[in-house]
Write the structure tokens for this entry.
Amino acid sequence: MVKENCGVVGIFSQDGSNVIPMIIDSLRALQHRGQEAWGIAVPNKDPMKKLGLVSAAASEFKKITLEYSSPSAIGHVRYSTIGKSNLENAQPLKVKDLCIAHNGTISNVEELSNLVGGCTFTPQNSSDTLVAAQRLVSLISEKGKFSTALSILKNEMIGSYCFTFLSDDNSVYAARDPRGFRPMVFGQKEENNSYIVASESSALSAVGAKLIRDVNPGELIKFSKNGMETEMFSDDNQRTHCSFEFTYFAHPTSKMEGKNVYLARKRIGQYLAKKFPIKDADLIIPVPDSARPAALGYAQEIGIPFDEGLIKDRYSKKGPLRSFIEPHQSDRIEINRWIFPINEIIEGKHVVVIDDSLVRGTSSRAIIKALKKAGAKKISMLITYPPIRFPCYAGIDFPSQEELATFVNGKDISLEEIIEKVRSDIGADFLGYNDSENLANAIGIPHDSMCFTCTTGNYDSLGIKPSFKTRIELKGE
Ligand code: SF4
């Protein structure tokens, strides 16, 4: 399991309706992208920010809706890839009259901070978004035009970004990085004549809005009383959509790059069955929840029964949360403690257990142990994502290499030997990983239009040659 950084939303109502109830509902539908903090910004006020899940503040929704009543707003759910997990670093942020919400990671934030008046950035007390926002605001005041400022900033900034912005004149803006690392879509709700832009279409569905299309990589969109205006701030045609969104992060109901995520995951399972046809298995089970469609696809393709052998306890405090996007190892262990096997389903069977990814190995180890205890005769584990061996500098939090299950400390050993090391470490009888070609074919997006950097170590798409840092250096913890 893994963790993704953030979800963003922006809404503008042309008939002047209060959009705050829609913002709250859309943030709830993006909660799977960040569980640490959330916030809302409206024009001419300081942003409102809270720690924890959006639903934890349900008793305050009425008060928030009245207090922040506005026909335009942006919102954010946060998972930290850079910067500590605290309220100060929660978003949206406000710099002068511009509020900003960011999904992604700016990986050259130290250099960028030199352009905004000296190197004041430290991971302990700041966020990459604040530095980008300060630089953007200074470029807008210098150049006068939003798109010109962004076209300069994109050359200075390395990383991934989907931004929503809000200005004090009520306009909502959205911008997606030229490579399209992170997803972003927009739509319309006819009922109150409003536009909504969000990280995923699950947010649009939550408020009854109709999906219009993806925001194009390198596109800046403005929603205001004049309707929608769009222009390109980059003419880069190379795409590097994050492949990991399709296996783990994104909501199964979402549609991104024209592909429904649930159906893509089911196809990934079907393609995995062609790569690893484990015909002597008795049962196919998913690791709940993101791997469920892939396990179903695998089972249907190979003709072996699918069942729920593991149940995530939704009634414990941490049970419903996603373990990868929890910031601390102790919380991830706590979440995995609340995945229970059903002994009567597992006992005496050769079980193929399918998971979306294997990052640290924390959850796989716990799950294999639990399945053995439940009496499984044999456990074959299949992973829908290829081996993750390198840090992501484009928005996903597996930043330090030594944390990865595949870490071999510079030893010159083959991929097969690495997989064998992981298999033995997690205790499975067999371990099979998907490969990137098979994954891209199943998703239905050309391999060269997707990012697989965390599996290859080729950082050309970001134009960097990183020197890998420890978690303490990156996050100050
Ligand atoms: S490095 Fe991996 S997780 Fe990061 S954007 Fe690329 S595919 Fe996604």
Remarks:
- The pocket of iron/sulfur cluster is lined by residues 181, 242-244, 392, 394-396, 451-454 (CB under 6 Å).
